Each structure stands twice: as structure tokens, then as C-alpha cells.
Amino acid sequence: MYTTTTTLTSRIRSIDTVRGLIIIIMALDHVRDFFHIAGATGDPTDLATTTPALFFTRWITHYCAPSFMMLSGLSAYLSGVNKTAAEKSAFLIKRGFWLILVEMVFITFAFTFDIYYKTLFFAVFWALGGAMIVLGIAVRFVSPKTILILGLALVLGHNLLDYVQLQENTLSDTLLRIFFTGRGTFLPRPDGGAVIFLYVLFPWAGIMMSGYGLGMLFNRNADPARRKKLLLLIGSVLTVLFVVLRLINGYGDPAPWSAQDTGIKTFMSFLNVTKYPPSLFFTCMTQGPILILLAFTEQTDNAFSRICTVYGRVPFFFFIVHFYLIHIMTLVAVFLSGYTWQQATDDSLFFKFRPNDFGYSLGQTYIIWILIVIALYWPCKWYGEYRARKRTWWLSYL
User: How confident is the model at residue 222 (pLDDT cuts 50, 70, 90)?
Assistant: First the structure.
């Protein structure tokens, strides 16, 4: 009995540790969006204008969204071990719709600070919620092994749709872009506003479904040593697969790499794979190292891993609070910098109180990121302990 409990505790801790590290890195990207001088106007992956420091600041955050999807699928498997298929399905579907509602109401406002919601964003919570709905439907009817196969089929095969050309602005073209291929789909509204789909649905659902299937390695009766070996093997295969396929420059990503005028830029071009939607190369590049990290952190218990775990236990709470904190801090900094109300709330701004020419250097942006992460440690710790004590049904949706 003691061995089983210890294994279960360390297993959950490793998931929360990796998820917490991902959340910390994720915050860097959002702080850069609001505080870096080029956050509103530049593309950190554009090799013609970026710098290595800015490129890798953006590149390291590529690990966040797919890893969060994969770990959400893995957590869904573990949380449903003692539930019926109907119970698991109902919870995932309800939570999926709840996350989409949160995206529309709370995350859109956190982005824009626009009380009129002239722009409605469907971003990561839309993809996460939609993927949960897809997973919830699959859980009701098929086995975890079948879900794993379906997830891998989506991950491996969705780039085939890159070669499908439909007539632009037709219903079929719009649906294809929203659910499979879009790099960002802008839909005007009759009231003059807009709906923007920043994330597609099914390629991300494939990653979550693969994570759900991966959960079979974490069953209570699974051998921890075998699990570690398999995680290392799968992670290594994915990483090698990325390198080999990327060198070939064939199927797996719509943006091939090319030789540049310097070695570092050529290396950056090689790593500059497509996130919107997540290409096969993108998924292999990010999830290979994450699975290796998951294997190595299963028994890790040190000061840094415990700090990461604090954030990893409350991902929804951190995500919501950190966005509002970042935007409020931006608002204060903008007015302290001398901008007028009119400049800060101009109709051309997607993000109110974030003028396009506002911002700081990359080094200063890093300092702000660190301060925000530190400031949220104690609220996250309190909320994590509160959830552990209460365990009421509604807290499972938060």
C-alpha cells in the first residue's frame, strides 16, 4: 500500500512540475506581447527583422501550448480512472463548453480591455475547450487505445490538408481554416466588430487525444521503471524524427527552412516551424523534449520543482489572473509614460491601453516577467491549498 501511494504521489507531482514550468515560460510570451517595444508591431520569428535573443524568447514559448494540451489529455485520463465512460464524457464536454465561454467573456476582455467586445478572440481556451469536447465524445464511444490512434492520425496527417485549395471566402474554405488549416481566421460581424480564430481545433485536439492515450502508461499498476524507459524512448524518437524530417524539408510543415547569410540565422530558420496550426514538425520538436523531461522529473523533489508545482497545480487560475495583471500593469505604465487617454484607447488598437509605439527593451521585459511570476507565487499557493481542502464539484472546473 505504501509503495502504491508513493508512486501515485510522485507521478502526479511530475505532471504538475512540468506543467508549472510550462506556465512560467508561457507568461514570458504574454509579457513580451504587452511590454516589449516590438510586441504589438513586430514578428519575433521574422528572420529579416528579429534578433537571436528575441527569436529564442519567442521560440522557447512554443513548448507551452502543445505541452499544455498533451498534459491536459494525460490529466483527463488519470482523473477518469474511477469513472464510467459516461461520467468522463459528460465532465469533459461540460468543461470544454465552460472553457470556450471563459475565452469569449473573460479572456477576450483580458486581451482587449474593451467593454464593447468589438473584437472577439478565440485563442488557446477555445482550442483547449474544443479539444476537450472532441475528447469527451471519443471517450464515450471508444477505448483509450483507439483515442490514441485517432490522436496520432490527426497529428501525423493534418498537414495533408495544406495541399487542399478551396475557393476563398466560401463556407467550406472558412470551416476548413477554422478547424484545420487557418493561421488566423478573421470574420467580420454585422455590427462592425470581428471574430478572430487564432487557434484551429482538430490539430490541437490530436495532441490532447495523444496525451490521453499516453495516460495508459500512468496506470496504478504500471511499472515506473518501464514508464520512464518508454517516455525516454518516445521522446527521443520524436526529437530525432523532427531533426531528420526537417533536414529533408518535405512533408510535415508548410514553411521549409533555408540557408541564411549567417550560421545562427540558418539554425533559426531550421527551428522556425509552424505553430498556427501546429505542424507535425512543431509537435515533434516540442513534445519530444517534454516527454523526456516528464520521465526525468518523476522522482524529482527539490526547491525549484516544488516552486513549479505550485503553479502547475492551478493552471486555470494562473492563466486568468496573470493576463489581467499584465494588462493592468501595462495600463499603469502607459499612463506613467505620458500617453493620453485618447492615445491609449484609440479605435485602431486591438489591445486597449497598449499603444503600438509603447514598450521597453527585451532585458527590461524579462525583469517584468520575473516580477510577475514571483508576485503570483503566493496567490497560486493559497488557491492550490484551498482547492485541496475544499474539493467541491465546482472547483474541478477551475
Answer: confident
Q: How far, in Å, CA of 182 to CA of 197, rounded?
A: 8
What is the spatial distance between Cα 310 and Cα 306, in angstroms, rounded to a whole number? 6
Mean pLDDT taken over the chain: 93
**Looking at residue 391, what is its pLDDT?**
73
In angstroms, the CA 179 to CA 311 distance is: 30
**What is the predicted pLDDT for the residue at 219?**
87
State how far the Cα of 299 lies from the Cα of 9, in Å rounded to an integer: 10
Indicate whether 5 pLDDT > 50.
no
Inter-CA distances, 45 with 41, 48, 50, 62, 304, Å = 12, 9, 6, 11, 30
CA atoms within 13 A on the CB side of 62: 26
The more confidently predicted of residues 82 and 17 is 17
At 9, is the pLDDT very low, low, confident or very high (cuts 50, 70, 90)?
Answer: very low
Question: How far apart (Å, rounded) are the C-alpha atoms in residues 293 and 289?
Answer: 6
HEC string for 148-188:
HHHHHHHHHHHHHHHHCCCCCCCHHHHHHHHHHHCCCEEEE
Q: How many CB atoms lie within 10 A of CB 347?
A: 8
Confidence (pLDDT) at 4: 35
